[in-house]
Write a structure and sequence with these properties.
Elements lengths: L7 H8 L12 H12 L16 H16 L3 E4 L5 E5 L7 E7 L12 H17 L7 E6 L12 H7 L4 H6 L8 H8 L3 H5 L8 E9 L4 H5 L3 E7 L1 E10 L3 E2 L11 H11 L12 E10 L5 E2 L2 E10 L2 H21 L3 E9 L3 E2 L2 H13 L6 E4 L4 H5 L5 E6 L15 H20 L1
Parallel strand pairs: 3-4, 3-5, 5-15, 6-14
Antiparallel strand pairs: 1-2, 2-4, 6-13, 6-15, 7-11, 7-12, 8-10, 9-11
Helix pairs in contact: 1-2, 2-4, 4-14, 10-11, 12-14
Length: 433
């Protein structure tokens, strides 16, 4: 059985690591070892991980990080939505500064999306322990549940519960990939629907939330910078579209008069790329999930279900795009003489990052010789939900080839540790404000 030190991921992380980055209590080997330990939970043979929200794998990852949190001297708690909060008291009774991310993944996801943000936040506390530093204000490290949305086709579940941003109606509509309700999923996880509803916290207890995340794009690679500043977070909207036709024998049913809903779905999907550019330069729309019923090689499809992921960093054009795609789905259905139903599963408000916080992040970057690069985030993050109620900031760490949600996802240990140094400097500056 291999140990962490002879794990290929560990060796690759340390291969080109500059040990001069080990200072101020921050330790690259510790980060590498912890990334490796998390990579073993939900490991898939292609090299990535599968840790759906509220799964045993996500829970095991949280248990492991909670152990590290306690060893770092933090007081650890978990709410009814599975969100983990580890707190370090400060010298003053004051709202806390918080940082963190998530440990769940998409199917066959990578090892950095989410865990890097959690481990970065924890490493700040580890460095303070080694330095004997006591912050002026309380500090919290947070792990949010089910950020990716692979459980319910509707992400950011934990941060929605913490902020009270999920309604009773939305809770009632949630069904996972097994058809289980939110209540059934929570029961299996070890919680209850009542405890989930009670997970909302008084956000006046938090002064600021800052999240570290891999870029999931190529801008930092292009400008050759290890860390960048997020200028705004796109608000995702997920449209669940169901085309319903009429099943029939593939050989005996004439082409004329067929009600083939897969043909309609294909026409709809093919038309999608023409719409985002009509509303915004930053709007995007994607179909990445589709189910065909009964899914037989010799059966005309009776039903097709698909999800359209719609995003923009500005709310008005994003919502305009939603309306356009609903109208297009209805036109395509009418043209093909089939039925369509469209349901908006998720609609999250985009969050701009305050200019003052961006300037303060730039000051921290400059201290480490990094030229500030400003990047809009097309992806949604838990910081987005918190940003509706409290100030938030985000740092991106360079992604190799911009790859994410893929076992090939990679950020060098040098870049990861540099991001932690910037995070620590920014947080310590915020402690003085």
């Amino acid at each position: 059985m291999s140990t962490t030190n002879d794990n290929p991921l560990y060796e690759e992380l340390l291969k080109d690591y500059d040990t001069k980055l080990d200072h101020s209590g921050i330790n690259g080997k510790r980060i590498a070892k912890r990334l490796v330990e998390l990579s073993k939970i939900g490991f898939v043979q292609v090299g990535g991980v599968k840790r759906p929200g509220f799964s045993n794998e996500e829970k095991d990852a949280k248990v492991l990080v909670k152990k590290w949190m306690a060893e770092a001297g933090l007081t650890v708690s978990e709410d009814g939505a599975g969100n983990v909060t580890a707190r370090l008291e400060g010298k003053n009774n004051h709202p806390a500064i918080a940082s963190g991310s998530h440990v769940d993944s998409v199917p066959n996801g990578g090892n950095f999306d989410g865990p890097l943000g959690v481990l970065s936040a924890l490493e700040v506390a580890e460095s303070w322990k080694e330095e004997g530093y006591i912050p002026q204000k309380p500090y919290e490290v947070i792990i949010f549940s089910d950020e990716e949305g692979s459980r319910f086709n509707s992400g950011l579940t934990g941060s929605q519960a913490m902020t009270g941003a999920i309604s009773e109606e939305e809770m009632a509509q949630l069904r996972d990939y097994n058809g289980d309700t939110l209540e059934q999923v929570l029961t299996h996880y070890g919680s209850t629907l009542g405890a989930f509803k009670a997970a909302g916290r008084d956000l006046a207890e938090l002064e600021l939330f800052v999240e570290v995340h891999i870029e999931q794009g190529k801008k930092l690679e292009i400008v050759n910078q290890p860390v960048g500043i997020v200028s705004g977070i796109a608000g995702p909207a997920w449209l669940a579209v169901e085309f319903a036709g009429e099943a029939g024998h593939a050989g005996n049913t004439p082409m004329i008069g067929r009600k083939d809903c897969l043909i309609a779905a294909a026409e709809f999907i093919q038309s999608i790329p023409q719409f985002p550019k009509t509303v915004s330069d930053t709007a995007v729309a994607t179909v990445g999930k589709m189910d065909v019923f009964p899914n037989g090689a010799n059966v005309i499809p009776e039903k097709v279900k698909l999800l359209v992921d719609i995003r923009d960093i500005n709310e008005a054009p994003r919502d305009q795009l939603i309306d356009q795609l609903i109208e297009q789905a209805e036109k395509v259905a009418a043209k093909n003489d089939i039925h369509v139903t469209v349901k908006l599963n998720t609609r999250i408000q985009p969050v701009p990052i305050a200019k003052d916080l961006q300037k303060r992040l730039a000051i921290s970057l400059n201290k480490f010789g990094i030229s500030p690069t400003y990047i809009p985030s097309g992806a949604g993050h838990d910081a987005m939900n918190l940003g509706r109620f409290i100030p938030v900031a985000m740092l991106f760490v360079r992604s190799k080839d911009g790859i994410s949600h893929n076992p090939k996802e990679w950020s060098s240990l040098n870049d990861c540790v540099m991001g932690i140094h910037v995070l620590k400097d920014f947080i310590q500056d915020a402690m003085k404000k």
